[in-house]
Amino acid sequence: MSARGKARRRALEVLFEAEQRGTTPDEGVTSRRTSTAQVINPYTVEIIQGVVAEQERIDEILSSYAQGWTLDRMPAVDRAILRIGAWELLFNDEVPDRVAVAEAVTIAKELSTDDSPDYVNGLLGRIQQLKPTLLD
To answer: Using CA of residue 124, residue 129, residue 130, residue 131, what is the dihedral sign?
Structure first.
């Protein structure tokens, strides 16, 4: 697995854990740095900070184009995967769009339900198509 792939997974863990525990992602990063031997890759921090900074906009976009599910009804892991994928698609020009989508789908295959990879692919694919109109 690439360094960025590991960073995405770690960011997912931190974002998921923060939501489940009702804490902030920053607290999760700090806790991991002080209480474990985990190395927090700079890209992990960039993803987390990016998702937190743009979460309102990301959630609004996800909610607008999610078919059949509200964000609240989605599995929490899917929400976190979609937020990371949407952030990479919309706000990180260093990651090619197709890579952002493919990485999100791969994570969904490994960590979520059988239906999640297709859903993640469809929703992020739609956002990728609409990207030029979403960031006006």
So the answer is: positive
- pLDDT for residue 136: 65
Q: How far is CA 130 from CA 11, 18, 59, 65, 89, in A?
A: 25, 30, 15, 10, 11
DSSP single-letter state for residue 71: G
* Amino acid in the structure at residue 28: G
Short-list 53, 56, 52, 66, CA closest to 23: 52
Query: What is residue 35's predicted lDDT score, i.e. its pLDDT?
Result: 85
Distance CA 57, CA 47 (A): 15
Write the DSSP string, 75-134. Answer: -HHHHHHHHHHHHHHHH-TTS-HHHHHHHHHHHHHHHS-TTHHHHHHHHHHHHHHHHHHH
- For tokens 């609004």, the residue is 60
Output the six-digit token pair for 107: 């994570």
